[in-house]
Design a protein that fits this description.
36% of the residues lie in helices and 20% in strands. With 244 residues, the protein is α/β, with parallel strands linked by helices. The chain has one domain: putative 2-phosphosulfolactate phosphatase, CATH 3.90.1560.10.
Length: 244
């Protein structure tokens, strides 16, 4: 089985099997927190405008523009806020600068798309291992076209868990991610050093970083189930053995 890590999304990438989408600060962490809080589904849209088109009484809008909640949205992109949100049984429509667009890239070709972060790293890696028949790919969102230390580190944590579960042939991106993981025993260090964390400090949301640095704290894994309009529909995966 191949283990691949693409450290930056690119339009020419294609995926034959399972993709773990990573935007640890903060979209995939926040998405996992909404599912942990009981959201029925996540609709990930490629733009704020397409998210607003889903506005309804049973729909919650969550988004981010410049790190902050956009006008007219119910929530921003903070996992601390999402984990406490009263979203039980509701649809959360999300649009962020990097993460939700990266999920759309993966969905063009992959058989299975999962939302992964440090917060759900064990559960996400285990489910990917169960689903894969030829390859597990980790696709890092990066930050506005640049590689993100936080996402590369997270890819290394996922690769580490995957290696425990089975024998994988690692390509260079996966080896790079594993090397980064081993360079930082404490996840807070690479996350704090990342450009994404620096951007959060500028808007007063640096308290989200320690939340994003939690490893394997949630069993919730968002899995692509379909599409509606411009949105990708993710629901919490229900597979025996996906956690533990």
């Amino acid at each position: 089985m191949r283990l691949r890590a693409d450290l930056l999304p690119q339009d020419n990438l294609s995926y034959p099997d399972v993709v773990l989408v990573v935007d640890v600060i903060r979209a995939t962490t926040t998405a996992t927190a909404f599912l942990q809080a009981g959201a029925e589904a996540l609709y990930l849209t490629p733009s704020l405008e397409s998210a607003q088109a889903f506005r309804d009484t049973d729909v919650v809008l969550a988004g981010e523009e410049g790190g902050l909640k956009p006008p007219g949205f119910d929530y921003g992109n903070s996992p601390r806020e999402a984990i406490e949100a009263p979203v039980g049984g509701k649809i959360v429509v999300m649009s962020t600068t990097n993460g939700t667009r990266t999920a759309h890239l993966a969905a063009r070709s992959a058989k299975h798309v999962l939302l992964a972060s440090l917060f759900n790293a064990h559960a996400a890696a285990r489910l990917a291992h169960q689903l894969a028949t030829e390859e597990v790919a980790i696709l890092c969102a990066g930050k506005e076209g640049r590689i993100g230390l936080d996402d590369v580190y997270t890819a290394g944590v996922l690769a580490e868990f995957l290696q425990i579960m089975g024998s994988y042939e690692l390509e260079d991106g996966a080896l790079t991610a594993l090397t980064t993981r081993r360079a930082y025993p404490d996840p807070l260090e690479p996350l704090h050093l990342s450009g994404a964390a620096q951007a959060l400090r500028q808007v007063g949301l640096e308290a989200d970083v320690p939340f994003c640095a939690q490893i394997a704290a949630s069993p919730a894994v968002g899995m692509l189930e379909g599409r509606v309009g411009e949105a990708l529909i993710f629901k919490r995966a229900q597979r025996p053995g996906s956690w533990g």
